Amino acid sequence: MPDATFATRLKEAMGEKGLKQVDLLRYAEDHGQKLGKSQLSQYLSGKTTPRRYMLAFLASALGVTVEWLSGDAEIELAQPATATAQSNEPREVPMALRKFDKSSKLNNVSYDVRGPALDEAMRMEEDGIHILKLNIGNPAPFGFRTPDEVVQDMASQLIDTEGYSDSKGLFSARKAIMQYDQLKGIPNVQMSDIYTGNGVSDLINLVMQAMIETGDEILVPSPDYPLWTACVTLAGGKAVHYLCDEQAEWLPDLDDMRSKITSNTKAIVIINPNNPTGALYPREILEEIVEIARQHQLIILSDEIYDRLVMDDLEHVSIASLAPDLFCITFNGLSKSHMIAGWRIGWISISGNKRLGKGLIEGINMMSNMRLCSNVPAQSIVQTALGGYQSVKTYVVPTGRVCKQRDYVYERLCAMDGVSVVKPKAAFYIFPKLDPKKFNIQDDEQFQLDLLQDKRVLIVPGKGFNWETPGYFRIVYLPRRAVLGEALDQMEEFLEYYRQ
Ligand code: PLP
Predict the structure, then answer these.
(1) Which residues have any ligand 1 atom within 6 Å of their CB?
(2) Which ligand 1 atom is the nearest neighbour of the CA of 136?
(3) I need a labelling partner for 296 at 20 to 30 A (CA). Which of 59, 143, 282, 329 fits?
(4) What are 390-428's pLDDT values in tens digits?
(5) Structure confidence by residue, pLDDT tens digits, 372-388
(6) Which atom of ligand 1 has the smallest separation from the CA of 228?
(7) Nearest CA to ligand 1 atom 12
(8) What angle do CA 343, 344, 350 make, to 5 degrees?
C-alpha cells in the first residue's frame, strides 16, 4: 500500500528549501541521478514510494535524514544492482538551486545606451558582419589620440603613483583644476572643494548617494545623459524630467522647469554642452536657471564634460560663475574635452555659498574617503592636460575634424526626406527626428534594431536618453568622414522604405 507520510515529508522538505519539482529534477541531472518528471510526481502524490537508493539521494539533496524522510513507510531496503550513483553517503545541499537576482534597488534604473541592440551588434560581429557604429562617444577608437606629451608624462610618473593618494586627489591635479575654475570664473573654489573621481560617472553616483534622501526630487533634463536619471533613482530619489525644446534649439523649457518644482525638489541638473542634443546654453538662459534655483533654494549640479568642444566661435559659460550666492557643484573631466576617456579621470568643484551645504559636504567627504581615492596615474596628468597647448582647439575650428564632421552629418541629414534636425553647437552628438507622418515610429528600439539588422548601422534611440516621444535618435559623429558617409548612405536607403 503506497504510503502518504513520505509524500507529505517530501513536500515539506521541498517547501522548506523553496524548491520546485523542476529544481529537484535539475539537481538530479547535475548529479548523474536518473529521476524522471512523472516519477517525482508519483512520489509527491503518494502513488509510489522510492527505493532505498533514491530515498537516500532525495534525503541528501534536501538536507534531511533518510529516516525522517521515509517516515513510517516501509521502504524497500534492497540496494540496486548499480550501486555507484546511489551511495548512501551524505551529499551537499543543492547549492545550484539557489537563484540570485539583481538587487531590487535596480528595478527602476535603466541605462540603455549600452542596451540589447549592442548585444545584437556584438553577435553580428561574431558572425563576421562589420557594424557601422555611431553609438558611443568614445574618442580613441576614431583616431582622436591623447597628446604625446600627456602620454609621456603619465609614463614618467607611473612609478610614483603606485600608492593611494589623498582621497580628494593629488595636490598638482587639484591645483590645476582650481586654476581652470578660476579661468572659468567659478567663484570661491579652494583646493579642499575639489574632488577627483574615476570619470564624471563615478562622481555623479558619489554625489547622488551623498545628497539624496528617499523621495527627494531632482530636476533632470529630457533628453538627458541617462546616467543622471539612473543615479538619482538608485540613490532613492525621483528624477523629474524637465523638457528641452527642439523648437528652441534644444534649450531647456524654463516654464516646464518651473512647473515641475515641488516642495520635494532639491536640485537642478543641467548638462551643458548637452549630450545628446549638442546644444550650448547661452548666458541668458543660464541666468534664468540660476534665478529659478535662487527662488526655490535649489542646488545647481552642472555637467560640463564637453566644455571645450564648442564650435562656431561660441563661448561656454559655466553656470556656477553666475551663481556666487548658491550652492553649486560643477562636474568636469578629461574624457571628452581632452579625449582621454579610458584613463578615467573626472572631478567636481564645489562653489558659491558653501555654508548652505555644510552637511552635504560632510557626506561627500565620507563617500570620497570610503572609496579611498581615484585612479592616481590618471590624476598625475591633469596638470599637463589642462595647461598649455590645447590640441582640442584644432578639432573645433571650421577646418577641424569635429567641426567638419558635424557639418557633413548635419547637411546629409537635412537632405534626407522626412528627417529634421537642429544643428549642434558643441560636443559630438546630433539628435535628429523622423517625421511621424511619414515613418510613424511607435517603437524606438524596434527602429534601432531594424536599422542594425538591415543596414548594419548602430545608433541609440531617443528612449535611451529618457526622451519619451518616439522617432528620435542620436548619432555620434566621431568616426572619420568615410565611415560617416557609408553609414549615412545606408541610413538614407533604409529610410526610403522603412515605415512602422
Ligand atoms: N556626462 C556626460 C554628459 C556624458 O556624456 C558622459 C559620457 O558620455 C559622462 C558624463 C561620463 O564621462 P566620464 O568618462 O568622465 O565618466
Answers:
(1) 137, 199-201, 225, 271, 275, 303, 305, 333, 335, 341, 346
(2) 8
(3) 282
(4) 889 999 999 999 999 999 999 999 999 999 999 999 999
(5) 999 999 999 999 999 88
(6) 1
(7) 200
(8) 140
The better pLDDT of the pair 67, 474 is held by 474
Look at residues 272, 271, 251 and name the one whose alpha carbon lies nearest to residue 316: 272
Whole-number Å distance, alpha carbon 201 to ligand 1 midpoint, is 6
Distance 175 CA to ligand 1 centre (A): 22
**428 C-alpha to center of ligand 1: Å?**
12
